[in-house]
Each structure stands twice: as C-alpha cells, then as structure tokens.
C-alpha cells in the first residue's frame, strides 16, 4: 500500500495512549517517594521508562526498522499497549463467565455477532489480546474503528517490511518522477494467506482491474460490441503445484508454456519464443503472464526483465491496461542477483505485482505473503479484492520478528546465507565425486542445488538402466523398467527423511503427474524430457554452518547405507534365482 496512514483521530489516539497505562511519567517520583523508594533509585527506573518510550515514539515517527533489534520485553510491551487500544482486550469470555462478582466491570459492552471475543486465556495471551483481526469487508488494509491498535500494527508492519526489502534486500523502492519508473518495492500490501492463495487473490484483483480498463475501450470483436473476457494466464512452467492450482482457483484458464534446457549448462529456463507466440495467439483474452524467480534446480529464475519488456511492447496501445505481468518471487528476496533482476524489469518493462512469502524470507510461521508493485492502483485493487476480515496472526508474527531482527539482524542472515553458498556447493561436489555423480551446472540458481542420481542403482553390468537402453525392448517393457528404476530412486528420498534429513527433493526421470486434468511430463524438472535423475537441496536463509555440515555428514552416510542395502537385496534376489 502506498504511504497512507490511519485517520488523524486514530493516530492521535495511538500516540496519546502509548504511554504508561497507570501513571504519567511526571507523577512517578512523587508516587514512588510515598512508597519510600529513594529518589536516586527512582531516577534509574524512570530513565529506563523514558528510553523505552523514546524507542516506541521513534518507531511510529520514522516508520522504519531500527538498526538494532529490540528486546523481547520491549516488543511485548508495545504489543500490549497496542492491544489496549482495541475494544475487546480487557477480559476473556471464560473469565467473565466464571466471575463471582456482581455487575459488569468493564468499559465496553458488545452487542454484535463477533466483538472479538476470546474464550481461552491461553489463546488470548498467544495473540496479545488482538482478536479483531485486520481490515474490513471492503479492504484488507482498511482501519477498523473497534480495533485501532490492530490497524496501527498492520500499517506499521507494512512500513517495516517495505523498509526491510528496500534497505536490506536491495529492491528499489523509489517513486519515479516524470517519466521515470517506480521501483518494485514502491508500494505493497500484506495478505494473511500463503503464496498460492495470495497468487489467486492477486490474479482476481487484476481481473477486476482489467474489466474496468477494457470496459472503457471501444472494442469491436467478432461478436459485435462484446469485450472479450480476459480469462487466460500464460504460465512459464515451474513444477510447483500451488502455482498451477492458484490460477485455476481464481477461475482462470492456464496455458502452460514450455521451458528450454540450456545446451551449454544443465539449466531449464524461459522459452521467450513460446511466450511471444502465445501472446499473439490469445491476444485480448490474456489476463496476465506469470513468471517465477525462485525455483528448484535445474529450473532457474525466469528472464523477467525480457518478459517485462515483451509485455510492455505488447501493451503499447494500452498504457496501464492490457496484459499484466505477475512475478512469483516466493523466497527470492534472499537472492541479491534476482532482486537486481526485478529492479531492471521494472525499469525497462512492465511488472504489475510481485508475490513474496513471509515465512520463507523472514523466518516466521507459514501463513502470510507480501505483495509488491510499482503501481499503487494495482495494490489498491488487490487489497480491496480480499473477501471479509482477515487474521492478524501472520502480521503479529512478522511485526515481532522484524523488530527482533532490526535492520542489522536482517542483513546478517542474508549475508550468512551468501557466505555459506560456496561451501555448500563445494560439499555437494565432494559427495558427488564419492558416488560417481556430478553437481548440476545451474549458475543462475544460487539457492537450490542439484546432484545427479544416474548411478544410484547401478550395481552390476546387468543394471536396470542398461536394460532400458537396449533397443530390443518394446515400449511397454521399457516403461515398466523405467517405473521400477524410479521406484528405487525415490526410496532413497524416503531413507533420507527417516535419517532426519528434510527438504531434499528426489526427481526421477520420465515421471508424469496429472493436476486438475493437465498432464505434466517429466514432472519435478519443469521440462518434458530432462536427461537426468537428480536430488535437490537448498542453501536457504536461516541455515547455519553447523546445520549445513551435519547435513552433508548424514547425506553421505545415508548414501552409503542405501547402496549397501541395494547390494544386499540384489544378492538375495540372485540367490533365489
């Protein structure tokens, strides 16, 4: 959202009430003296209180991350102060029902159907009494009159996370002057749902915006004056189910664009020619082009700068309208090279929305997404498309984490990941050499890495892969043999998980998967005919050096154990024969 704020009356309420709840600071010396506390002791405590108040005031004034993260006590204090501003925070329903006192002792009485009531004191404490949620039925970012504290927290969290991606991750947040373009982080909104559902909401918002633009145009199609419905999304294939399902969940038709394997590396990337052909073929029925910048190896980030320029040129007669360009940047904020690519895309072409996961980028529980855009009107359309009120929990988690990190802490976890990348790659090469495999050469993906599994089950001269390659086998028998091989390979992934190794992906060759009626060949590799079976592992933000080293120790041991198990099983089979 652009730099909007709460109504003046609400802001005044927030600032006036963000003070010690029971007394003014000027009253403290007198009150403490009455308790026979020495003045010199009181002055120490008072200075602590004034310092805390100063931090909070600076946060609201500057609306940016503190350089140094706050203490847990300071964060909790602010959350409780914000909770006091909401109308429901005084007592849980359980306490009220169990009360033996006469009369109703609280300031607010609620006669609505919801009123932010919470039964459990444990649940109330978990949420710091913030039970009203965020937004209203017309806009997920709209302030609530009964929940000024929650509204302030939401707006402040948005400003803090925008500051983090600008000064920490390196996304351009400037608002261009004159003909200059806006940066990818110029505007934003927060959604309390995961990346896939956020994608569906973004596409729905863009559809409403497209209808408004197209309705203003004088367009004569084959059916008279009817304006064609923009219901097609051109999706550069990435084998993650949520992307495909998000398009269908929005009630749109997905055209899956093929990818290309780079002949000089192992990379799988954008087929720009296929995209251009699809734009021409489907024309005014195309709502958006959906590209991806964070993906599993051997897939590499789409060339979003070239796509952005292509979309801009295609829309040259429809400034602000026509085909939109949405970028799935799920966990890409941790990669500086990809963030620079986004900056360039917004400079030379068209980008409408960028979707970022909060959990993968900021180490919070699953459940939130940050939507960025160079266009404030796009952000407004997305925010107003959210149906109903929303949960505040993902925003509270993000607010706490950002204040705990501070800018220095956020930069530190990004720097640590970059420091470990080369060690991660070297360790993967070492393991590959031990087992006669190789690391996939995908230099444009510095988060996810791959290692071939082509020799994983090659135990003797009569191994299954040699059998498959024999021309004498008919197609059905070859298919059966390939499935047997894939089963053996995927069992390796199961062994890794039982050895407490999570996050790796095992991708056999020639596997297929049907999702909502569409069949993906070579599923997992984002390519119909990828030549290798492989395993992926990620050097992602939050991984430490000790965890990385232990991962490779366990991986190597599991690999030896698996080869030993295959050898043992093979000998048993030969004995039976």
Could you give the topology of this structure?
Layout: H1 8-17, H2 28-33, H3 39-62, H4 72-84, H5 93-97, H6 121-126, H7 148-168, E1 187-191, H8 195-216, E2 232-236, H9 241-249, E3 253-257, E4 259-261, E5 268-270, H10 272-282, E6 286-292, H11 304-314, E7 324-328, H12 336-348, E8 353-357, H13 358-362, E9 369-373, H14 376-385, H15 393-434, E10 448-452, H16 464-469, H17 475-498, E11 505-507, E12 512-515, E13 518-521, E14 534-538, H18 545-576
Parallel strand pairs: 2-3, 2-6, 6-7, 7-8
Antiparallel strand pairs: 1-9, 4-5, 8-9, 10-14, 11-14, 12-13
Number of helices: 18
Low-confidence stretches: 220-224, 459-471
Q: How many distinct beta strands?
A: 14
Instruction: State the end-to-end CA separation.
Output: 70 Å
- In what range is the share of β-strand residues? 5-15%
Shape: globular
Strand order within the widest sheet?
1-9-8-7-6-2-3
Query: What composes the largest sheet?
Result: 7 strands, mixed
Average per-residue pLDDT, rounded, comes to 85
Task: Give the radius of gyration.
Answer: 28 Å
Q: What fraction, in percent, of the residue positions are helical?
A: 40-55%
Structural class of the helix and strand makeup?
A: alpha/beta
């Amino acid at each position: 959202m652009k730099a909007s704020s709460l109504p003046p009356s609400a802001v005044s309420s927030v600032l006036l009430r963000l003070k010690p709840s029971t007394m003014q600071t000027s009253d403290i010396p007198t009150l403490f003296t009455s308790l026979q506390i020495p003045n010199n002791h009181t002055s120490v405590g008072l200075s602590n209180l004034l310092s805390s108040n100063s931090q909070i005031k600076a946060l609201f004034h500057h609306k940016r991350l503190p350089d140094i993260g706050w203490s847990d006590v300071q964060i909790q204090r602010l959350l409780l102060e914000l909770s006091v501003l909401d109308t429901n925070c005084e007592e849980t329903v359980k306490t009220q029902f169990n009360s033996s006192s006469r009369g109703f002792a609280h300031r607010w009485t609620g006669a609505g159907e919801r009123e932010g009531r919470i039964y459990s004191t444990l649940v109330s404490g978990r949420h710091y009494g913030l039970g009203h949620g965020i937004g209203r039925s017309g806009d997920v970012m709209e302030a609530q009159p009964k929940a000024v504290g929650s509204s302030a927290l939401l707006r402040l969290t948005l400003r803090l996370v925008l500051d983090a991606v600008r000064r920490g991750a390196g996304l351009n947040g400037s608002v261009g002057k004159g003909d200059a373009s806006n940066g990818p982080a110029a505007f934003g909104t927060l959604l309390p749902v995961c990346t896939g559902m956020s994608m569906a909401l973004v596409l729905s918002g863009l559809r409403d915006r497209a209808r408004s633009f197209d309705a203003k145009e004088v367009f004569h199609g084959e059916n008279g004056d009817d304006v064609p419905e923009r219901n097609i999304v051109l999706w550069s294939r990435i084998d993650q189910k949520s992307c495909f399902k998000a398009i269908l969940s929005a009630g749109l038709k997905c055209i899956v664009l093929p990818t290309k394997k780079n002949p000089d590396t192992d990379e799988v990337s954008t087929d720009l020619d296929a995209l251009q052909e699809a734009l021409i073929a489907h024309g005014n029925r195309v709502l958006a082009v959906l590209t991806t910048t964070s993906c599993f190896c051997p897939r590499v980030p789409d060339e979003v700068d070239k796509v952005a320029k292509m979309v801009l040129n295609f829309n040259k007669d429809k400034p602000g309208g026509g085909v939109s360009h949405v970028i799935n940047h799920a966990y890409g904020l941790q990669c500086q090279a990809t963030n620079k690519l986004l900056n360039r895309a917004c400079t030379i072409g068209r980008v409408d929305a960028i979707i970022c996961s909060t959990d993968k980028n900021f180490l919070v529980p699953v459940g939130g997404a940050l939507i960025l855009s160079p266009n404030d009107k796009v952000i407004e359309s997305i925010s107003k498309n959210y149906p109903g009120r929303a949960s505040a929990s993902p925003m509270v988690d993000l607010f706490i984490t950002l204040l705990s990190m501070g800018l220095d802490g956020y930069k530190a976890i990004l720097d640590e990941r970059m420091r470990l990348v080369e060690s991660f790659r070297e360790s993967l090469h070492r393991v590959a050499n031990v087992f006669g495999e190789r690391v996939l050469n995908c230099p444009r993906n510095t988060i996810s890495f791959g290692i071939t599994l082509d020799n994983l089950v090659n135990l003797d001269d009569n191994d299954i892969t040699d059998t498959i390659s024999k021309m004498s086998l008919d197609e059905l028998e070859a298919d059966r043999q390939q499935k047997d091989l894939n089963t053996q390979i995927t069992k390796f992934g199961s062994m890794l998980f039982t050895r407490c190794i999570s996050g790796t992906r095992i991708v056999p060759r020639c596997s297929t998967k049907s999702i909502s009626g569409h069949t993906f060949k070579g599923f997992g590799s984002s390519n119909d005919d990828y030549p290798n079976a492989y395993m992926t592992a990620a050097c992602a933000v939050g991984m430490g050096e000790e965890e990385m080293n232990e991962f490779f120790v366990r991986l190597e041991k599991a690999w030896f154990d698996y080869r030993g198990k295959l050898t043992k099983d093979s000998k048993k089979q030969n004995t039976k024969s």
